[in-house]
């Protein structure tokens, strides 16, 4: 048996669980309940201020989450990549550990924590929960690029007269851009489409776009739900295209994606 | 200020990495405009010394001055030196121009001056019109030129070069050596160059600093280092050489390889054990005749391009390497002759192993972190600190490390014509010197055994 044949099971899996559902989403999005072609589902989205508001709100929350993750995650990744931690992976594992715990368990724990501290659930809790859940996805790719960075580049910058601040802005930061883009992608994309975290952390008071999609599908409005999904997919696709281009321009591997 | 025409002064500098001594009390002065090469095998501390001068590491002890200014604790970005790194360390996110302009932009020079200087530096390294190229698209040699341009464009007082040519192929390396020498001449800047390649050091330098095991072995001009090596290590490391045990019979008369030779050295005393160095190109080889001081048989002959390299087994039982333009095939009987001024005599660093130890009881002595049985010791109190001597030839090495009383790694091998002189670094971190006829390899892990009757205990 030739080696390429070994990929057949995976190809079948992809076909059944990724390609066919995608085709179905597109098919449903452009048809009405009778199965006739229509753009009505998209028109409905455009005419429906509530849906558009949710959409914009979701993007806003995702952007805030991503920015907070970046602001918190970069220094953490930077510290982890320093010499004294390089030898022991313990600290890295401690930071990455939450990634291995089920997202629902983490979110339920956050709810319990807020209850215990008598803090109100709502927008603040939502952003906290998202940042808490997705921070490791920001730290890891940045840590990866920083850790692989050639130490002699930093020495070369020092040698040419750069003080520690300049070394960071002129060399370390530009060279860690691939990791930053990877991190942004890995945080932004799942946060846009999240709904379980929002439900649990806001007692269902704040609706995110993911929730809207889920509600529509749940209530049997498959065609409209599919159209909303497609809009979200397009957004993510545009994001990742943009990010890929940036990555290529950097011509530096090290990111996770 | 009592200074000085020395641009770099390194005084009593030591560097420790934890327990390990990387540099041991280094003293070095470099004159302005000199081309100094720090030469040594890998792990000898040469790169550490360079990094201390550049400021990437700080000395554990001692003082470093540049142009009379104490800079031991100064961070690298405030030192008037620039470095060319072994693996170039060009910034991959910048093009050639921005790489070279990096230091100038930090100094906030006007852009017209930056452009002029970058162009000048590129011209100097023969890379005109490469400004906008991506550094990843350049070959190794071109990257190295950019790295040199990036350093010299800042007009440093000292240019530090850390094995800059090590990654290039032989032909490229030779070309770059010549260019570096030209560059040094035209810039007039002090070069401190680190390499493990002795030929490179001999070609380029005004002064060579030979290092080994964190210590400076010898400082001198290439000619001095080659012709007058101070010890067996330097003689062995620089060029090919025959190093033999000998005895200085009296002034101007030395005995080695089972024969007495006239020489030019004096002042060693009478019947002193010494080391003799004879370069293989200084031995005359010819058909046996009355002129021959030694006779022997050629055991191998290899063509080396310019000359033949032959091994001759003398009738007195020594093996000598001889280089000559004439071909003497293996098996042929030959005569050998060495002229007096081609014999270089060196003081022996040691004639036997000496350890510091402690007498445990009448029959046991502790040294090298181990208790050894010894012949009964009478007039020394147990518990006293003692000196222990063991002859080189009396130390037994074993393949199987479990068989030894202690273990160590073969660290340095010197062929002495009829036997090998090994330096074995014991796990106690003290060196044990061994004379043996067995063949060992550098880095071999060995067991070490010393018999009771071979241990001499002294007050």
What coarse outline of chain A follows from CA principal-axis ratios?
A: globular
Summed over residues and divided by their number, the pLDDT of chain B gives a mean of 90
N- and C-termini, Cα separation of chain B: 48 Å
Count structural domains of chain A. Answer: 1
Give a written overview of the molecule:
The complex is a heterodimer of chains A (257) and B (459). Chain A has 257 residues and is mainly alpha-helical. Chain A has one domain: MetI-like fold, CATH 1.10.3720.10. Chain A has 13 helices and no strands. In chain A, helix 3 crosses helix 7 and helix 7 packs antiparallel against helix 10. Chain A is globular and about 70 Å long. In chain B, the strands form 6 sheets. In chain B, strands 6-7-8-3-9-10 form a 6-stranded mixed sheet, with helices on both faces. Chain B has a 5-stranded antiparallel sheet with strand order 13-12-11-14-20. A 5-stranded antiparallel sheet of chain B has the order 15-19-16-17-18, with no helix packed on it. Helix content of chain B is 18%, strand content 40%. With 459 residues, chain B is an alpha+beta fold. Chain B has 8 helices and 30 strands. In chain B, helix 3 crosses helix 4. Chain B folds into 3 domains: 227 residues, P-loop containing nucleotide triphosphate hydrolases (Rossmann fold); 108 residues, OB fold (Dihydrolipoamide Acetyltransferase, E2P), CATH 2.40.50.140; 106 residues, Nucleic acid-binding proteins (OB fold (Dihydrolipoamide Acetyltransferase, E2P)), CATH 2.40.50. Chain B is globular. Chains A and B meet through helix 8 and helix 9 of A and strand 6 and helix 2 of B.
In short:
Chain A has 257 residues and is mainly alpha-helical. Chain A is built from 13 helices and no strands. Helix content of chain A is 77%, strand content 0%.
